[in-house]
Amino acid sequence: MKKAMTVGMSVVLLVFLGVSFSYGANTIKVGFVDTYSGPPSVYTFDVIDSFKMAIEAINAKGGVLGKKIEYTTRDEKFNPAVGLAMAKELVMREEVDILAGTINSGATLAISDFAKKEKIPFLCTFAKSEKITGEQGHRYVFGIAENTRMIGKATAFAVAKKPYRKFWVAGEDYEYGHAVGDASWRYIKAMKPEAQLLGQTWWKVGEADIAPYITPILQAKPDMLYMATGGTGNLNFLKLAKAMDLMKVMGCFLHTSIELSNLQALGKDAPEGVMGTVNYLFYYPETPENKAFVEEFRKMYNRPPKVGALYGYAAAQLIAKAYQKAGKIDREKFITAMEGLTVDSPVGKLEMRKCDHQLMLPMFYGVTKASPQYDYLIAGDIMTIPGKDYLPTCDEIMKVRK
Amino acid sequence: MGICRAALIRRMVLDFIAAFFSAGVFCQILVGLSRTVILFIVASGLSLILGVLRIPNIAHGSLYMIGAFMAYTVSRIFGGGITGYCMAVILAPLGVALVSFVVERGIFSRLYEREHIMLFLLTFSFVLVFGDLVKMVWGAEYRTVPLPRFFQGSIPILGLPFPIYNFSLLLIGPLVAVGLWLIVNKTKMGKISRAAAVDREMVGAVGINVSLVFCIVFVIGCFLAGLGGALVSPIVNVVLGMDHTLIMEAFLIVIMGGLGNIWGALLGALIFGLTQSLGVLIWPQFGIVFPYAAVIVVLSFRPTGLLRSTW
User: How many CA atoms within 13 Å lie on the side-chain side of B1?
Assistant: First the structure.
């Protein structure tokens, strides 16, 4: 009996070993750690769905270096400790070649630190902390999504030429809120020295009714209100802005106000005239590349792609092209190949900047407006801010990294 | 010198009065009161259950969330607009009451004899269960209940815009308070439940079905949570996790007012809502702190709450 069990166990073990060996030989494995449950999954599913779509196309053409790209996912439930544990598990047990994710800045920084020690490439696909490729950037981490420093600079770029002088910053009292609020004000002040900050208001994350916070702002009469909210806080603000018709008395700016996940949820209830920025709009630019991408995505998932879809797509293209350039499956060669790499995307050519490993995505500025074509609002007066204009300069990055 | 100081003081007093009656303050009081309405509706339900059943129902916030999600569904079924909204405000709390009835009969009613800590843990487990159920039924996407045209926009109050919907909440609040007062003080049911809160065994001894009384009170309490959720749904984003912040505030309000005392819940909600809205006016950057500071002040002077606790 005992003997039979030993034999059985060895067979099982051998099968496992065999499977993992065969995987190791024929595929490139990407391990995604991200929040796939709870409210943030509104954004993360687009990343992974788009990534899947892109690698299926790559694999259909024979893969990279004769190998297929595979991926596996782990749900970190928006918890940095869980995220880190899962990243470790993916590297140790699944033996992934590349790590990717997550939407949680804390988890992303923890995994980035782990990636640095393990010398394994890590592609950050959503988290917005400027520390990821800023203060705590290193050889093994790559930023694909925009971060708070970039949002701040893009905001300043978009509003500096407008006749606003008096500003007010309001938002949710957590790291993203403060980081994006501070960065925006810092860059506005730098580009427009005569700008004045009249005051700031902060409320706690998830505050249901933010009406009490608005009256003091109305009384102070700023020219422009910069909203530093994220996720579900965006919708609460947009609803109130419509009810109080804030846009009539002051300019309102909210990063991602023109993003599909916000505007689709609100339908015709969304306010018109709110300024905002975002990395991706499925209806702009009207290039063949973007149209083809949207059509493919719609065919596969029966919905238009949101901003996360661009991040997922770019991640897949970068991985494929970097291995192609490196010529073999080697972590160090992959990193070197990634630096300065250019890939095609629905929004044009994208360069992975060498100095800080930040992807140079364009940023689209626009103002919410009703559209006869859709049953939700879209962006009007769209202006494209090229990556080189709103990414912090390499000097800036080197300064904060010291 | 003396005259100078007197003039200065008079000037300061006048300035203070002028500031107090400014448009901003008046508007903030109204906004604070409209916020009080939601807080009171939810906290009074929590307090009712706490007072009669002695259950610190942490899942109360989840029922508020379910109320909001149900309001979303009902409003969609009736095609939005004013009909959708009215049906949502009527049907969603009833739906929540039904859920709570099943939960009470199925599980809670069997555990009243257990220790508090057991009931406490049980309600906590329901926070997780309800959270996952909501995710399974409605998913994680953002949802909003359209505000009927009737309530859209704002009315100017002393030159400052005040959302019409918040204004209508000001009218609903007193209605709910009066309704609760009538139920608790004027009906036989209310009298029995108050007696049961004080001495459960005695009520049972005179031949009253205490278990049934508890069930009714539990369902009414949860109905109020659902009503709060339905009323708040047009102004917020209906989303998973909206229960967490609210349940914290509701508990603070109940503790501040006196455990199990409905009027304590009203007082607590008033203090919470008004300190928040006026605090923002005084110090926008740290407005968030004022309600919690108020809780600390109240509890350091009256550790058992402002009004008489039934515990």
Answer: 0
Q: Does B179 touch chain A (CB under 8 A)?
A: no
Residues pairing with A100 in the sheet: A32, A123
Report pLDDT digits (tens) over A56-95. Answer: 999 999 999 999 999 999 999 899 999 999 999 999 999 9
Q: Which strand (E) or helix (H) includes residue A106?
A: helix A105-118
Nearest-by-CA chain A residue for B275: A212
Which of A21-25, A81-85, B39-43, B291-295 is the least confident region? A21-25
Q: Say if the Cβ atoms of A215 and B144 lie within 8 Å.
A: no
**DSSP label at B150?**
G
CA dist., res. A71 & res. A28, Å (int): 8
* Most distant CA atoms of chain A, gap in Å: 86
Cβ-based contacts under 8 A for chains A and B = 140
In angstroms, the separation between the Cα of residue A5 and the nearest Cα of chain B is 40
Q: Which two tokens stand for residue A83?
A: 């995220």
The predicted complex's ipTM stands at 0.79
Quick: pLDDT tens for A186-238: 999 999 999 999 999 999 887 878 888 988 899 899 999 999 998 889 999 99
Contact A251, A162 (CB under 8 A): yes
DSSP letter, residue A27: E
Pairing mode, if any, of strands A350-351 and A363-369? unpaired
Q: How far is B270 from chain A (nearest CA, A)?
A: 14
Phi and psi at residue B136, to the nearest 5°: -70, -40
Test B143 with A206 for CB contact under 8 angstroms.
no
Inter-chain residue contact B237 with A212, CB threshold 8 Å: no
Considering only the beta carbons, identify the residue of A38, A209, A235 that sits closest to B35. Answer: A209
Q: Which residues contact B14 (CB under 8 A, 6 or more apart)?
A: none
Q: From the CB of residue B17, how many other CB atoms can be counted at a distance below 10 Å?
A: 10
**B68 at interface of A, judged by CB pairs closer than 8 A:** no
Q: Strand A275-278 vs strand A363-369: parallel, antiparallel, or unpaired?
A: antiparallel
Residue A68 pairs in a beta bridge with A27
CA–CA separation, A50 vs B142, rounded Å? Answer: 20
Q: Which residues contact B113 (CB under 8 A, 6 or more apart)?
A: none
Mean pLDDT of chain A: 92
Integer Cα distance of A129 and A30 in angstroms: 23
Chain B residues with CB under 8 Å of A216 CB are 24, 28, 280-281, 284
Summarize the confidence of residues B285-292 as an average pLDDT.
87
| Chain B positions in Cβ-Cβ contact with residue A267 (cut-off 8 Å) | 144, 146
Q: What angle do CA B298, B301, B302 make, to 5 degrees?
A: 75
Is B159 within 8 Å of chain A by CB?
no
How long, in residues, is chain B?
311
Pairwise CA distance, residues B243 & B66, whole Å = 9
pTM over 0.95: no
Least CA distance to A171: which residue of chain B?
A: B285
Q: pLDDT (tens digit, 9 = 90+) per residue, A308-350?
A: 999 999 999 999 999 999 999 999 999 999 999 999 999 999 9
